Amino acid sequence: MIADVLNFSVAEVHGVVTFYRDFRREPAGRTTLRICQAEACRSVGAEELAAHAKRRTGVGFGETTYDGKLTVDEVFCLGNCALGPAVQVGEKLHGRVTPARLDALLGEVR
Ligand code: FES
């Protein structure tokens, strides 16, 4: 439908939608948790934070919880490198996020 409306080929639309993570083929959860996985954040525990998020939510990057409340995504730099690990919950940016702090943030979402 998008290709028809914009007069692009289906392949062009598919390429853009699958390349950029902000485009989705299915609706996102009510809130999106984005965990930075770029180098500065990885050097201070972003990988462990992502693993913790997966254990707590039951979903990995690009997935949505069964109740539709939360989508978890990875992002490569939120511009908050000095305060890593950085996460974004909805529109709000958070720095120096520990697993305990992430649990608190997730508690607010749920
Ligand atoms: S590397 Fe994580 S905010 Fe820049």
UniProtKB/TrEMBL annotation:
The keyword Metal-binding applies. Keywords: 2Fe-2S, Iron, Iron-sulfur, Metal-binding. It comes from the Bacteria. The keyword Iron applies. Its cofactor is [2Fe-2S] cluster. Belongs to the complex I 24 kDa subunit family. This is Formate dehydrogenase subunit gamma. It comes from Kribbella koreensis.
